[in-house]
Structure formats: structure tokens, C-alpha cells
Amino acid sequence: MSDETKPSAGDSSGLSNGLVSDSDRRVYQAAQSLHSSSVKDLLSLGVCERCVFRLVSVEPFDSDLSSVSASTLRSWLEEASAAAAASSESSCSRVCIVCLGVLQFVFSDAKQTLARSECGSDYAARVTELVKREGHEFDSFGLEVSVPSTVVENERAVLLYLKGKYETEGWVQSEKISVKDALKVLVLDPLKASLGAKSDSSSFHIRLTYSMTSDEVQDASETTHERKKRKTDEENGSTSMSENSFEKVYEPCILSVNCNKMPIFFSGRYFKYSRNVSQTRWIIDDERMGEASVEELIGGNILPACLGDSYKFHAAGREDIDVRMLGSGRPFLIEVQNSRKCPSQQSLMEIEEKINNSEKKLVGVKDLKFIGSQCWAMMREGEAEKQKQYAALVWIARPLEEKDINSISSLIELKILQKTPVRVLHRRSPLERERTIHWMKVEKIKGSSHYFLLHLCTQAGTYIKEFVHGDLGRTSPSMGSILGCRAEIIQLDVTDVKMGDS
Ligand SMILES: [Zn+2]
């Protein structure tokens, strides 16, 4: 809007006031057009210059107001409304009774140091400095603003006062822009310039949070009955709002600037070579189960590369701590919160190598890649997981016979009923579900009649250990019931996970 900065020579209005740019001239003229007695009223109540424009003008709130200093705005408003020029001490430096300094670009920082900016670009420079401290890489941002509820309440009170006093004026009825939206209008362009970034509904957000000092929060709670009275007055249609209601002197708000990056996701497949590594971090009564977890071995290597705050691990299905995950690996996602940078494919390959070449070889990773902020495709792939193949070392109470081998491998598409296993009842609800054992093959172990290798392919979600031992009759039929003797799994490996056949 303020791109054309050359003043047109013929225009005499306001030149004597030192108007150099077109935006100055526009604001100056807007000030002249405001309803003068309400401007005078609001200024004397302690409403700031930009709030006066916001509450009195019928024009859309203009970003030009950002580039004109508060003291200049005040002199124009005083001139336009023939208000007595207030002494400089009590006017511009006073915190606005409505916006509490937000639209005056006045705030305290975390260390209670007061910052006052003349115009939007000064303010944007301060915010930019705080944003840069967070160390994010970004080329676009979304801006969010939050203000204390006191601001909203003060605004209601002032609007009520105006409506009562200037009922017949057209401008009173028009919709007013809120303090937080007004701040966005004022500072968005200056922020884009100082951050060198676009503004859009980006995955990176800058949040400007204004809050009151703790003293005032307490103070505000003491005036609850005042607020109640105000509400009652409002309901009764009373317009008795008086200047007394606005005597309170406020301190500037505390501004905190937070940056937040939407979670980013990485996908891959993992292998678990150890029978003493859980899938996720597993701590019972402060004691770690297993020597490590897949979650930590992978996430712990990715997080530092993203300079993120934290991560979450999501896998397509799970296996028990003592079950290895082999074959083509199990798909997983790593979700990283508030990442400051995104590692290149090259550095992801290095992370993969680091995990795969670690000394203990507990887990392995392949196909590690960045998949952006959208993880749904990957999750769907996980849901489409249909079949799993296992290799189980099985022990039975009687010697294995040749006819057992034939009868087991002749069972194709065997339907079984499984009640939720006793061992997981504490975390899963009790259900009975039908599952399918697609096929089984027995591999004899030389010199052993009680032990054999069982290769089986089942529907995802089948409890394999329970299928073999029967879980006290809760899974039926079971390997035990088929062979007519006790059967147990000694060791189990997942050898393949097959996705949907689509
Ligand atoms: Zn204000």
C-alpha cells in the first residue's frame, strides 16, 4: 500500500505537517474524517491512537497506521478533534486502557525489560531477533497472536460506552476489528520484510503471546464483582458506563515469542536382530525391560539431525521383545516435533549406516526417507498390512511323528478363534476374534524329536505364541489341540510382513 512514496506536488493538505509519504497523507486525511467528539473522548479516557482509529473509523483498519509513529498520530488526532494537546508525559507514554500497549508496540520481555517501538518495522525487527534465537530454518510462516482476556473485556466496556453515548452515529454500529487482528494487519508486512519470508498457512508458526504480569492477573480477579455489575448493566440495557470505569492504570503486557514447526515425518523399515530389545521404550517401576528399544535406537539418531524437541515412534504392528523382526523389515514412522532443520537424503543415509554398523547390531534400518508433514499414506500402508510369516522353534511334550508333519502342512486357511491372551489382558480389552492361519510347514531338526521348526503364514494380528500353546483353551484350535499334547514356542522370528495384495 505504501509503495508510492513520492508526494504529489500539487497536494497542499497536510504538507505543513511534514507529511512525506502517501501513506502519511492517507492517515492524516483519515484522522480528519473521524468523528471529532468521540476521538476527544477516547483520547482523554486513555485509549491509544491506533485503538481510536480502530474503534471510530468506518474504513477498514489500515496497515498504513503501522508506519506512522504514535506521537505523530496523536498530534493529528488532537488537531482533528480540537482536543487540548495533552502533556507528553501522560499521553503517548501511557499504556492504552483497551489494548494494554499491544497496538502501541509496547511490551515487557521475559526479563521485564520494557521495549517500545515507534513503528511496525521497529517492532518487527525486535520480534525477528527473538525468532532468530530459536534457530529455525523456514521460508514461510503463519502468524498467531493471543492477548489477555482483560483486553477483550476492556474492549467490550469501551464499545458499550460508545454505543450509549453516540447511539445515533453510524460508525458506532459498524463491525470493529479485534486487537489481535489489528496487530496482524500492522505487523505482517514489516515481519515478512525483516524475516525475509512469505506468510501463508505454513507448517511453521510464530506465536506472539501477550500476557499480564502476575500482579495484574490477581488484581483482575479482585474486580470480578465489577465485571458482574458490568454484565448486569449490559443486560439491563444500561449505558451508565462512565469514565470511572476506565481509571485503572495498566502495565504493558509481557510478550513471549514462540516458534513452532508442525511435526515432520520419516519413514523406513526396521529389523530387530535381538531377543532382548523391545519395540518401544519399556520401563516398569523405573526398571528398563530389555537392553534397548527399536524406538530409541532409531529415533535417538534422527532427532539430533533435525534439532527437534522430541520424537514419536509409530510402527505398523508390533512384535514381542523376544521376537526378532527379519525378512523385509517392519514399516515405521518417526515423527519429529518442532524440528529446526530437515536432514538431507545424504545425511539420512549416513544415519542408516550408523545404525546398521553399530557394534551390537541390535536393530537395522532400510529405506529411511523424509516424507514431509503428511504421514497418512504411510499409515495406510501400515493398515494394509495383511499377512505375516514367522519361523518358530517349537517344543512338544511327545516325539514328533511323520504323520504330524503331513497333517500340519495339510491345514490351509485354517480358521481359529482367539480370546485376548492372558498376558496382554492388562492393556487390551477382552475380545474374541477370528484369525486365519494361511499355511504351515514343519522343518525337522536333526537328532531331536521334541523340537522342530514351524514356518507359518498368518493373518496380521494373530497371537502366534497362543496359537501354539492354546492359552488355557482361550485359542482354539491350537497346535497343542491339533497334536493332542502340550506345545510351546521356544523362539520366534518374524520373517516377512506382506502388505495388502492391491
Ligand atoms: Zn490501544
- Spell out which ligands are present: zinc ion
Our Rg estimate from Cα atoms comes to 35 Å
Distance between the termini: 55 Å
Main pleated sheet: 10 strands, mixed
- Which residues form runs of ≥5 with pLDDT under 50? 1-15, 217-224, 237-243
Tally of separate domains = 3
Mean pLDDT: 84
The helix content, as a percent range, equals: 25-40%
Helix/strand-derived category reads alpha+beta
Count of DSSP-assigned helices: 16
Strand portion, in percent?
25-35%
Shape: elongated
Number of strands: 20
Keywords:
single chain, 502 residues, alpha+beta, Alpha-Beta Plaits, 3 domains, ten-stranded mixed beta sheet, four-stranded mixed beta sheet, 20 strands, 26% strand, elongated, binds zinc ion
Written description of the protein model:
Residues 1-15, 217-224 and 237-243 have low confidence and may be disordered. It is built from 16 helices and 20 strands. The protein has 3 domains: 15-261, no CATH class; 264-382, Alpha-Beta Plaits (2-Layer Sandwich); 387-498, Alpha-Beta Plaits, CATH 3.30.70.3190. Helix 1 packs parallel to helix 4 (70-81), helix 5 (120-133) packs across helix 8 and helix 11 packs antiparallel against helix 12. It is elongated, with a radius of gyration of 35 Å. The protein starts with 21 loop residues before the first helix and ends with a strand. It has helices at 22-33, 36-45, 49-56, 70-81, 120-133, 149-165, 170-173, 179-195, 214-222, 224-235, 294-306, 345-356, 376-383, 402-409, 464-469, 479-483, and strands at 106-108, 114-116, 140-146, 198-199, 204-211, 254-261, 264-272, 277-278, 283-284, 287-288, 292-293, 310-315, 323-337, 363-372, 387-396, 414-419, 432-444, 451-459, 475-476, 487-498. The protein is of the alpha+beta class and 502 residues long. The longest helix has 17 residues, at 149-165. Strands 7, 12, 13, 14, 15, 16, 17, 18, 19 and 20 form a 10-stranded mixed sheet that branches. The protein has a 4-stranded mixed sheet with strand order 4-3-5-6. A two-stranded antiparallel sheet has the order 1-2. The chain binds zinc ion. Zinc ion is lined by residues 47-48, 50-51, 96, 98-99, 103.
